[in-house]
Amino acid sequence: MAISRHQRNVLFFDLMVTRRAKHAPYPDIKRLADLWIDAAQNPSFPVKAFEKGTVTYLVKDAEIDVAKETVTLLIEASNKNAPNASYLDHDKRSKRDFLKRDPEGSGHSAHLVVSLKQQGGQPHTYLALLEDVPMMPIHRVKSVLNFIISQLCKADPSKFEFTPPGGSKVAKPYIPRIEFGGHVSDRFQTDIETAKIHAIRLLAPASNQTLGQGGHLAYGEHELEIKVKNRPVKGQTWTTLRGAFTANKSKFPEARISFQPEDGGKSTSVRVDTATGQIIGKDYVRFLKFGSITPPLDSTALDKIAQGFANRVKTVVEKERKP
Question: CA 109, CA 94: separation in Å to the nearest integer?
Fold first, then answer.
């Protein structure tokens, strides 16, 4: 994906605070933001590694804007598998190569601006806008932020505690988590109305339940195929699908829709969170284009938050979040 010094797309997500401990409280996003800021300010904080350590991530810079009630994170990625960079001058037919030195990797960074105000009518949910650049898929961003939470909670288990019901007087530590759900774009709702739908499947995660004797086999992810008997009334396709997904959310947390937007065109598919109706991943996620960025973003990996660009994104967060 090519990017420009003067232009960026920003993707719309909801950040949802979760926890695995059944009776634990949902912490306010500000407490998690403090952890991300601590990690950014600690030069010895461990990086989050992927692909056998050849791809690593960290939070390079972070700050809270009290007036606008946002936290801005600059997330940085390094990829040792990437080739060396080349710059060309076609007028002179010349080329310059910039060679990586071990253990360097190619660098990219992205701004993530998160509202510190809970979305109206959506408990534990906060608007989040992510700069769309290479090496920043939302699932990697989620992993990096959850990694920081986990590391700091393990270092100090008293950061998040709760007293289980049933008369217990002993506080029990727990580790919060976050999830992201993409806002459905207008294009998706338009495409799905006219598309040829190939398949709809409800998906359930793998189970630890064993199959047969000896503990050698276990149930994996399973799915339920849905048939379209009669096409919904025009303009109601997505509403109908989302309603069906929500009705089955307890057993099937995800759905996958395979469809062909145009006759003779390329088929595609999207995964949907059945509880929220939000897109999982990047495809068909709502985005906003920012042009004429001043000063321009002259590097793929910035040392600090670009205040001019970040302020424009914060303004959108203020405007778009639900009171």
Answer: 29
Residue 263 has pLDDT above 80, yes or no: no
218 and 278 in a single domain? The answer is yes
> How many whole angstroms separate alpha carbon 48 and alpha carbon 45?
10
Identify the burial level of 294 via C-beta atoms within 10 angstroms of its C-beta, where 0-12 means exposed, 13-18 middle and 19 or more buried: exposed
Q: How many angstroms separate the CA atoms of 83 and 64, rounded?
A: 36
Domain that holds residue 123: 1-84+99-183+285-322
Question: Are 4 and 79 contained in the same domain?
Answer: yes
Q: Dump the DSSP string for 126-137.
A: EEEEEE--TT--
Strands of the chain, DSSP E: 8-19, 48-50, 55-65, 70-79, 85-89, 94-98, 106-115, 125-131, 161-162, 172-173, 176-182, 196-204, 210-211, 217-218, 222-226, 254-260, 268-273, 279-280, 287-290
What is the pTM for the complete model shown? 0.89
- How many distinct structural domains can be found in the chain? 2
- Residue 142 identity: K
Q: How confident is the model over 38-83, as pLDDT tens digits?
A: 999 999 999 999 999 999 999 999 999 999 999 999 999 999 999 9
Contact at 8 Å (CB) between 61 and 37?
no
Structure tokens at 60: 């390079």
In a domain, 310, yes or no: yes
Number of H helices, E strands in the chain: 5, 19
